[in-house]
User: Fold this.
Amino acid sequence: MHVLLSIALAMAGGLVLSRVVKLLKLPNVTGYLIAGLIVGPCCLNLVNQTNLGYIKIISTVALGFIAFSIGGEFKLEHLKKLGKSIVTITFCQALFAVAFVMLGLFALKFAFPDQIDTPMILLLGAIATATAPAATLMVVKQYRARGIVTDTLLPVVALDDAIGLMVFSICVALAKVFAVGEQLTFMSTVVTPLLEIALSLVVGAALGALLALCMRFFRSRANRLCLMIVAVLAGVGLSEMNWPMGLSLSSLLTCMMTGAVFANMRKDSLQILDGTENWTPPLYMLFFVISGAELDLKVIPLIGIAGVAYIVFRSMGKYLGAFTGAAMVKADKNVRNYLGLTLLPQAGVAIGMAQVVANTPEFAAQSSQIVTIVLCATLVYELVGPLITKIALVKSGEIEKTPKRAKKAKSSQTACTAVVTPETSTAATAQADTAELSDSNETEK
Assistant:
């Protein structure tokens, strides 16, 4: 089958399944993943392994835009307004998730040495940091939740993915050392990873500054959109190059830094960045459908223990991390008790990280298991996450349980759709098919 026909079938499947999951009140990303599974090699094989190889570039470019959009939210003036309490809570819940997953999997490694190795532990620990705000925001909008927990939740999920990308870049560099069996030296475990991260940040900063400068000479929305596409493609392309000393850049970190520098150099950055929403929804939808198509059902029995452990330990880390961070800053009791429950959903950025692993030759032995674990975990989190979030907000008193409010929430449901961006949070949009596509702009931000 021609690759273009495969792409058309993938998009059609994504659109149809997004309608189906809407009837079940589930996020669109769940429908996209299921659509990919159905049209992929494991089921109908309409998108076969050969065509998946050809259209991998779509995933690579989509990841670049996901990271770029996350960086665009990373404005210094915004961080100053958040205050130390939000930053402390965000760091705690992210680092606790890393620690719990790594320690839990490390303990299981002794019992199941054939299923779990050190690179897998490092990579899954880093992926555990990512949080998908779309499902959470859908609940907040649908039930008009208001209060201290909601006010704390929104900035935390906005900052979380930026921290996650930095942690992921560090863990990828370390995991490569163990994956290729190099001798552990100070150079390989410390200097090389730091050089790769620093170089990624420098290249990204240079692209962001150049993009901001070029915006002065191009005023039309079309030209500015073209400039942003050029910057993201350049960031991804430079990251895929072979650099001296065997260094390799992180495309996620490079593009995130490009977006961050651009956002801080342009006061009108948010208005300019909004221009990407006109054409990225189909790109993100294809990204999730392709990710679903790569789900290998044959691997599921082999990763059962590791997959369950990942979900359990990540959930524990997120909850206890948020609880500890809130206690450290003496936050309200409701924030301590319920914030962690609202941080469980995971999708866009986590899937993006898994795709980076799949596209890295050094992780060929672990990539299939990691991608399967992350995709299965995403389906679980997207199914139960919104329900747990609703329960937490009800318990904290931020969702009224009166019939009148419930009726209002129900009537507003069709007008409220969450935008999926690589785990970037945005407001819900109203009606029309174009709005439904923007739901995929997650990139869970």
